[in-house]
Amino acid sequence: RVSIFNVSTGQEAYRLNIDEAEKHPVKQLCWRPEREDATLRTRGVLAGASTDGKVRQWHVTSRRLLQTFGDPQDTGQLFCLDYA
After folding, report:
1. Cα end-to-end distance, the chain, whole Å
2. Cβ-proximal residues to 10 (8 Å cutoff; 6+ apart), any chain
């Protein structure tokens, strides 16, 4: 599970990864870089590297899982990621 907190209130604002059947720790999160002219629909995308060998991208405000990348047979466990 991935929880995102509002730093002003200290309250949990969003919870992601709640529908995943298999529970694997997310080791690193990274926000997708945004262009200044990006629409709200394309803002707030967060990627996470998991120990199941997959990278997942979520649209945070809608809590939707957008994509899952990776084949555990090829990647093994993932511990970090970054956007280039």
Report:
1. 25
2. none
Residues 6+ apart with CB under 8 A from 12: 3, 4, 5, 6
Question: What is the pTM for the complete model shown?
Answer: 0.79
Specify whether the CB–CB gap between 61 and 13 falls below 8 A: no
Encode pLDDT of 35-73 as tens digits.
888 787 778 999 999 888 899 999 998 999 999 988 878
Q: Could you tell me which of 75, 71, 72, 67 has the C-alpha nearest to residue 32?
A: 67
- What sign for the dihedral angle of Cα 36, 38, 43, 47? negative
10 Å Cβ neighbour count for 74?
7
Specify whether the backbone of 32 is left (phi greater than 0), alpha (psi in -120 to 50) or beta. Answer: beta
The pair phi, psi for residue 42, each rounded to 5°, is -105, 5
